[in-house]
Amino acid sequence: MDYRGAARHAIARDGGLFLLEGELFGEYAPGEEIARGEFPRDLPAGARLLPPVEPSKIVAIGLNYKDHAAEQHKPLPREPMVFLKPSTAVIASGEAIRLPSGIGRIDFESELAVVIGRRATKVPRERALDHVLGYTCANDVTARDLQRLGVQYSHCKGYDTFAPLGPCIAVGIDPGNLSIEG
């Protein structure tokens, strides 16, 4: 969040909001309590939400839901359809999405975003979660008219503001027990 003119992370716990002391991607602990109430509704006066993380890139998987593939009259791919979104697509939850001129249909999809906590290359499946910091909400915005022109997804999903994230990173949760709605 933007707190007193600086980008700061905070920890919501036990009805309070505490400034994060330490490193988000390392060791951290709750520091000074800056608000009481329910996050993100009860922010400190003058505070503004920012994206909970500033990724260098977003690695995404296309057609990863059976129902969504059927809706588009496409089979599920045999191999994951990987595409990238640029960091310039990221905005905070609740910020305005700027629609490019000349683009017709825009769709929005709720997604679970995995926040990687440390570099990982060729990690065995059983160790994959060791590299996850937590999870956040994502809104996958798509210019559908452009998507229909080809199989590359970056051009229809990579516009500035097309990746709202947040409002927080949930840590210590089981993603298999979550329901995604939106």
- What is the CATH H-level superfamily of the largest domain? Fumarylacetoacetase-like, C-terminal domain
Strand content: 35-45%
| Biggest sheet architecture | 3 strands, antiparallel
Number of helices: 3
Q: Average pLDDT value?
A: 91
Q: Ends: how far apart?
A: 23 Å
Helix/strand-derived category reads mainly beta
At CATH level 2, the architecture of the largest domain is Alpha-Beta Complex
Q: What general outline do the C-alpha atoms trace?
A: globular
CATH first level of the largest domain:
Alpha Beta
Number of strands: 11
The side-by-side strand order for the widest beta sheet comes to 3-4-5
Helix share bin: under 10%
User: Total domains, how many?
Assistant: 2
CATH topology of the largest domain: Fumarylacetoacetate hydrolase, domain 2
What Rg do the Cα atoms give? Answer: 18 Å
State the order of secondary-structure elements, H for helix, E for strand: EEEEEEHEEEEHHE
Low-confidence stretches: none
